[in-house]
């Protein structure tokens, strides 16, 4: 009897020890994921925020540098108060609350990739991340129904043009300047309904495509690349939209198209430091709103059109370091007023010009005649071409040169 009782006691003790071992087990198979536990315990303002919470936390763990401690308050369920994240009522349900935008401008964050983050946020409309250290592939955000603005400027992206952006149906703002992208610029990007396109300060080497003028862009910066070939005549199709364009510091060649004169909203046009040649088309006299024209350091020649110098809004006309030979009295007035710069040309009675030998060599060896020569004398907005008219004037200051700075606009 005593032996039987003693055996029963041993059996009970063994069972209890087994149960305790199970309860205290640290086996990764049995233990729930700590993130899943915390997400289950949190209360969110909307189910849409609960869905994106684990995506945000996963990206937080992926960040390798956060010198400003931006993600320090990325704790808890109040996602709309996370620094850099912005919530709004989504278009498909105005009573709901969703993560609509991300602004990481100048946060100095570093992460090896953005994939698995912004492309997984179903209600995201914009992503701004100027001046960080993001790299890897640009995520495909084409499946996000509300997405329309992408700014990844001044990061460390490299490789080919980020072609996933071509499939973003409603993209209106694309800023990829100050990275290390290279190769061609796909023509499809000029088919999108963009308002701003900034791809300057990369290493693109393509020619400008024939459909260059197919996007209704307002502000366009392609400066500081290695783009080649002529400026397409299709630029004239931007006559009702294009306000400011920077093409400086490339390798553009050929003659200036007459169609530039159709750009009735144009205020800034800068093609400094290319290898453009030919005369200035007199159609430039139709740029009634133009404030800044920069053709410096090219291979342009012959006379400077008086009609161009007569434009009333013109505040800065730079023609330095070309091969012009003549300026009339209207243009000379601009020279005296500091508006027109014609230094280092071939105008014999003005100071600081090229030598006679330099000018003679150019005109004997390097001058090239342009196609459609008759168009260079036409001023399409004059009475003999009634389909073009003069337009209202504006004194608003140029803004696009800010894109030549690394930081946010």
Structure notes:
The chain has helices at residues 2-23, 34-41, 47-62, 306-309, 329-336, 356-366, and strands at residues 85-88, 98-103, 110-111, 126-128, 133-134, 149-151, 158-159, 173-175, 180-183, 196-198, 203-204, 219-221, 228-229, 244-246, 251-255, 268-270, 275-278, 292-294, 299-303, 316-318, 323-326, 340-341. With 409 residues, it is α/β, with parallel strands linked by helices. The strands form four sheets. A twelve-stranded mixed sheet has the order 1-2-4-6-8-10-12-14-16-18-20-22. It is elongated, with a radius of gyration of 31 Å. Residues 1-37 and 385-396 have low confidence and may be disordered.
In brief, what are we looking at here?
17% of the residues lie in helices and 17% in strands. By secondary structure, the chain is α/β, with parallel strands linked by helices. The strands form four sheets. It has a twelve-stranded mixed β-sheet. The protein has a five-stranded parallel β-sheet with strand order 13-15-17-19-21, with no helix packed on it.
């Amino acid at each position: 009897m005593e032996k039987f009782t003693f055996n029963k006691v041993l059996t009970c003790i063994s069972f209890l020890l087994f149960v305790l071992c199970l309860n205290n087990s640290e086996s990764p198979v049995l233990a729930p994921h700590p993130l899943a536990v915390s997400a289950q315990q949190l209360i969110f303002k909307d189910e849409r925020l609960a869905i994106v919470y684990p995506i945000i936390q996963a990206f937080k763990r992926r960040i390798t540098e956060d010198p400003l401690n931006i993600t320090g308050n990325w704790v808890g369920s109040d996602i709309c108060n996370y620094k850099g994240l912005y919530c709004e009522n989504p278009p498909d349900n105005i009573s709901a609350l969703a993560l609509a935008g991300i602004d990481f401008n100048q946060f100095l964050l570093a992460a090896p990739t953005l994939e698995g983050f912004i492309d997984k946020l179903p209600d995201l409309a914009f992503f701004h991340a100027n001046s960080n250290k993001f790299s890897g592939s640009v995520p495909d955000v084409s499946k996000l129904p509300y997405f329309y603005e992408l700014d990844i400027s001044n990061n460390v992206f490299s490789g080919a043009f980020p072609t996933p952006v071509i499939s973003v149906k409603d993209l209106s703002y694309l800023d990829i300047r100050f990275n290390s992208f290279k190769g061609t610029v796909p023509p499809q990007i000029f088919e999108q309904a963009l308002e701003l396109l900034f791809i300057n300060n990369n290493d693109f080497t393509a020619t400008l495509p024939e459909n260059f003028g197919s996007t209704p862009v307002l502000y366009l910066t392609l400066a500081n690349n290695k783009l080649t070939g002529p400026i397409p005549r299709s630029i004239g199709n931007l006559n009702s939209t294009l306000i400011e364009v920077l093409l400086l510091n490339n390798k553009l060649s050929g003659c200036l198209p007459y169609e530039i004169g159709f750009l009735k909203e144009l205020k800034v046009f800068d093609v400094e430091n290319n290898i453009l040649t030919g005369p200035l088309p007199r159609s430039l006299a139709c740029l009634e709103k133009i404030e800044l024209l920069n053709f410096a350091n090219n291979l342009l020649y012959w006379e400077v059109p008086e009609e161009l110098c007569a434009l009333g809004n013109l505040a800065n006309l730079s023609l330095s370091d070309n091969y012009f030979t003549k300026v009339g009295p209207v243009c000379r007035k601009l020279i005296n007023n500091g508006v027109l710069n014609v230094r280092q040309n071939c105008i014999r009675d003005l100071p600081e010009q090229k030598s006679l030998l330099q000018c003679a060599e150019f005109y004997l060896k390097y001058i090239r005649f342009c196609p459609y020569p008759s168009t260079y004398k036409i001023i399409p907005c004059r009475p003999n071409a009634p389909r073009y008219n003069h337009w209202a004037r504006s004194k608003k200051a140029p803004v696009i040169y800010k894109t030549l700075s690394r930081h946010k606009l």
